[in-house]
């Protein structure tokens, strides 16, 4: 078996070269944080994800203004060994309008990191991602602040989200980038160049919206492959992601245990070369 084939079939990835996680993770964004019974259901989903072997859970300050972080802590703390909960900062709510917007000012980033530490009940965020680059704040100030927090021991590794290849190159002159989280799925490959850059550098790529909302099951090609494999269209698209690049770490989200179990079962799905070729062509048709 070739080295690349071994990498593509691996079920784990080492973020930053030293942090092992299962490649198929869980995105917590969709978990309701309201009082019972919705909150109880969310806690059950989070706990079930860990029972099923998930070691990478993604959240953010933006998700409920930290409420999602608090929910995960309530559900999972004290955290089992090997579990990585990664969060994101850099989006804040305006005190004047109440609207959310990009805010990468050093004081805001520092405050949100401290809040995340408190809400998640940890002393260090093993992976902290900048939710978006704030165009109103110099990139050096944003990443310099995170680098300082890393030196202080509050952050282990630093990641970025929704960036271009040029921005990634610029960022790597300031910090060591451990992960990139961009929108990406079998029908939406706008960020293929960013994925390629991550693969070349060994940087983890966490695709958000890894399943095209409502579209996968409507595409005849995906539905046909799903029928051939006795699987769901969602499972087919997740299996395609895992086989597309060795640095790919999908984080599908759901608020239902049955969907969670279905998503994680995609790891066992084996696409044939012919099936993969047919799926590879979908993005070309979508942009034609």
Automatic annotation (TrEMBL):
Keywords: Oxidoreductase. Pfam families: Aldo_ket_red. This is Aldo/keto reductase. Residues 23-283 form the NADP-dependent oxidoreductase domain. It comes from Streptomyces ureilyticus. The keyword S-adenosyl-L-methionine does not apply. The keyword Oxidoreductase applies. PANTHER family: AFLATOXIN B1 ALDEHYDE REDUCTASE, ALDO-KETO REDUCTASE YAKC [NADP(+)]. It comes from the Bacteria.
